[in-house]
Amino acid sequence: MRMSGMTTLTDVRRRVGGVIFERVAGADGPANRARIHTRPGPRWFPAGSPIQVVHGDASMFVGGLRALLLQSLHPSAMSAVAAHSGYRGDPWGRLARTSTFLAVTTFGAADDAADAVARVRGIHDRVRGKTPAGVPYVAGDPELLAWVHVAEVDSFLRAHDRYGARPLDRAGRDEYVRQTAVVGRALGAAGVPESVAELAERIDGFRPQLAATEAALDTAHFILREPPLGGPLRAPYGLLTAGAVELLPAWARAELRLDGSRSSARARGARASGTVVTHLIRWALAADPPPRADAGAWPVDPPA
Predict the structure, then answer these.
(1) What is the dihedral of CA 32, 35, 38, 40, to 10 degrees?
(2) C-alpha torsion 138→144→148→153, nearest 10
(3) Contact (CB, 8 A) for 105 and 302
(4) Which residue has the higher pLDDT, 232 or 236?
(5) What are phi and psi of 70, to 5 degrees?
(6) C-alpha distance from residue 52 to each of 124, 156, 266 (Å)
(7) Residue 244 pLDDT > 70, yes or no?
(8) pTM greater than the 0.70 cutoff
(9) ER-bound oxygenase mpaB/mpaB'/Rubber oxygenase catalytic domain location, by residue (predicted)?
(10) Bridge-partner residues for 138, per DSSP?
(11) Which residues lie below 8 Å from residue 20, measured CB to CB, with a gap of 6+?
(12) How far apart are CA 244 and CA 39, in angstroms?
């Protein structure tokens, strides 16, 4: 119940959830969400499948930050982001576009997912240049796309293993990697892994190419120290970044100069921080869940 003029816990929950959703999804978020979840038609993935479990969980907030930090260690990928993405000038716009793409391809109608992939591929075809070392790059290069893909998949899965509400078993984790491969291949990535073991091998294969350039260090500083946030959002964001950094492999933390005086106590503190903030986000967003249609009755139609 609610008395006139009084704010209830439910009001606070909805308000917090609304602020979080608007930050992540942008001004068009409610309309996009309604279309994604209620438009009739076949989907690429069955309702409740591992990719939907992972991508629909609050652990994605930690996984997304980890993915950005890890992806920055590929000099060509980092050069493309620095020169063409506008992440500094419009970080919230970039976040909204990325989150919408993930939602459409994971939950949306198959033709909407295919259209989203086609738009991204068109953008990639136009993004080209040279790294500061003079190495030419094209964003649509299959190997470059493969790095972006495996860094994301590894980050999302590890964050979900640590902070997800419903962690997957071994078979579910392999199925998650296999399902994300559908999207990776559609985007043009080469040699996308289809199991957790293949994912680890693919990442290891990229290691000789990875190094922290000045642009990568600048990006890490921006993400961790200068986020475009203020007021009450700054503290929970700091908890998210602590969880993301702790999830990075030791070699990546060292490259990005994030090791500092690492200790088991600090690692436990970072894990506790990630747990607290993902629980808070999950609690807030659950006050206004996405609309649901009878997606289970629709045939699944993933791209070849």
Answers:
(1) -150
(2) 150
(3) no
(4) 236
(5) -70, -45
(6) 26, 12, 32
(7) yes
(8) yes
(9) 54-276
(10) 128
(11) 281, 284, 285
(12) 34
Please, what sign has the CA dihedral across residues 36, 28, 59, 175?
positive
Q: 228: which DSSP letter?
A: S
**Rounded to whole angstroms, how far apart are CA atoms 139 and 134?**
15
| The pair of three-digit structure tokens given for residue 92, joined into one six-digit string | 């919230």
Query: What one-character-per-residue DSSP string does 117-178 give?
Result: HHHHHHHHHH-EEE-TTS-EEETT-HHHHHHHHHHHHHHHHHHHHHH-SS---HHHHHHHHH
CB 291 within 8 A of CB 37: yes
Please tell me which of 213-217, 259-263, 274-278 the model is most confident about, judged by mean pLDDT.
Answer: 213-217
Nearest alpha carbon to residue 215 among 92, 76, 89: 76
The mean-pLDDT minimum among 63-67, 222-226, 261-265, 299-303 falls in 261-265
Q: How far, CA to CA in Å, does 18 sit from each of 26, 30, 156, 275?
A: 11, 10, 23, 21
Please report, for the chain, how many H helices and E strands are present, in that order. 14, 2
What confidence tens digit (pLDDT) does each residue in 148-200 have?
Answer: 999 999 999 999 999 999 999 999 999 999 999 999 999 999 999 999 999 99
Which residues is 109 bridged to in the sheet? Answer: 43
pLDDT tens digits, one per residue of 41-50: 999 999 999 9
- The answer to whether the CB of 17 falls within 8 A of the CB of 285 is yes
Token look-up 């590890």 returns: 158
Tracing tokens 């003029």 back to the chain, one arrives at: 5
pLDDT band at residue 85 using 50, 70 and 90 as cut-offs: low
Q: Which two tokens stand for residue 89?
A: 């000038």
Lowest pLDDT segment from 171-175, 180-184, 228-232, 276-280: 228-232
